Amino acid sequence: MVRKVKESLGLKCKHLLYSRCPMCCIVPPHMLENIAVNGTPQQRSWAFHTLSVSAQFRGRRNVVGAINFAPSPGEKRRTIYDAKNTEELPGRLVRGEGDPPSTDEAVNEAYDFAGATFDLFYEIYERNSIDDKGLRLDSTVHYGVNYDNAFWNGDQMVYGDGDGEIFQRFTKSIDVIGHELTHGVTQYEAGLIYFGESGALNESFSDVFGSLVKQWVKKQTAEQADWIIGEGLLAPIINGVGIRSMKAPGTAYDDPLLGKDPQPAHVKDKYDGVEDNGGVHINSGIPNYAFYLAAVEIGGYAWDKIGKIWYITLRDRLRSRANFKRAANATIQVAGELYGQGSKEQNAVKNGWQKVGVL
Q1: Domain boundaries, the chain
Q2: Beta strand pairing call for 157-159 and 228-229
Q3: Residues facing 92 on adjacent strands
Q4: Which of 45, 129, 170, 203 has the smallest CB count inside 10 Å?
Q5: CATH node for 16-188
Q6: What are the respective helix, strand and coil percentages of the chain, to the nearest 5?
Q7: Considering the chain, what percentage of its residues have pLDDT values greater than 70?
Q8: What is the DSSP letter of 269?
Q9: Mean pLDDT score of the chain, rounded to an integer?
């Protein structure tokens, strides 16, 4: 049945094999495909539509390539638009940098959480926005009708309102916004191809910094953090805590409607098929867990030492076709350069990658 769902939507992976900057969605396709099979007629309709819109958007981006329309003013500049439940981008301007809060919660969440993401990268990693040149952070809220996703389209952030039964509005979770904006950072730096292990690394780096934005705002240590991606996104009737768990891959949800979280925590359980662009959302659990293990072993605030190691690796050491082993070796090398060969930090990074079977 799932295969028929994919065939009806034309969801093939081959056209994305060499895409460095596709539309990157927070909700993985396997979750939506399960809804399309297991849901009520109305829920199936929502899932089909979300999958269809996502597929069409990816197709357009593959044809036209990465075209950036937002200017780089050189300073923090957030611009929030309202699509008013249409699928036209960017929509109507509703809040700019420095404007007072809106009466619309989604507008304020998109504004505040984009600002928190900007501030983390600027204050901790000395990065000036997504492109390091002050790229304007454009966001559109209220995209589509019951649209169950949020995505970075190579130029801006887009948020659906969710359907209210399975997913709540996608601006609710700060880690979702940090995750999607980090796809933009990856686009401008390593340019990790969105397929196979390089695509799983692309997703993992977004999970890492999405979680770090949340931890930074909450001032949580690695031990205190929940390491959940999409906290608060699932409706109360769903048996789950979020979309992914970095500290326990494969345990984020187990629900009759969504299915069971398929993420592995070890290379021996790695998904080797072609679905999900070769498992980009599935296999990201492996590097996610390596990061979590290293962060907890180092201790303290994860955005500090381990975050800096991952950021420098993404910025300076990885190229588009990097795999897990190259990422492991690069992070170990950076850790040694920053904190010394044989240091606690370097050993923690090495131990993390060894425990997930990459080394």
Answers
A1: 16-188, 197-355
A2: unpaired
A3: 82
A4: 45
A5: 3.10.170.10
A6: 45, 10, 45
A7: 88
A8: G
A9: 90
The CA distance from 245 to 227, in Å, is 6
pLDDT at 89 over 90: yes
Q: Please give the full DSSP string across 138-195, using - where no structure is assigned.
A: EEEES-SSS---EEE-SS-EEE----SSSB--TTS-HHHHHHHHHHHHHHHTT---SS
Q: Quick one: average pLDDT of 133-153?
A: 95
Q: What is the mean pLDDT of residues 150-172?
A: 94
pTM tops 0.90, yes or no: yes
pLDDT of 24: 84
Other CB atoms closer than 10 Å to residue 68's CB: what's the count?
A: 16
- In 11-162, where does DSSP find H-type helix? 29-38, 41-64, 105-125
281 is catalytic: yes
Active-site position among 165, 180, 197, 345? 180
Instruction: Count CA within 13 A, CB hemisphere, residue 260.
Output: 5
Q: Are 303 and 291 in contact (CB under 8 A)?
A: no
CATH ID of 197-355, from 1.10.390.10, 3.30.300.10, 3.40.50.150, 2.40.50.180: 1.10.390.10
Indicate if the pLDDT at residue 11 is higher than 60.
no
322-342 per-position pLDDT tens digit: 999 999 999 999 999 999 999
Walk across the sheet containing 24-25 and list its strands: 24-25, 150-152, 157-159, 137-141, 78-82, 92-96
Q: Report helix, strand or coil for 228.
A: strand
246 pLDDT exceeds 70?
Answer: yes
- What is the enclosing helix (H) or strand (E) of 289? helix 285-298
Q: How far apart are CA 185 and CA 236, in angstroms?
A: 33
Query: Could you tell me the sign of the dihedral formed by the alpha carbons of 307, 308, 309, 313, in that order?
Result: positive
126 is catalytic: no
**Shared fold status for 16-188 and 197-355:** no
pLDDT value of position 70: 57
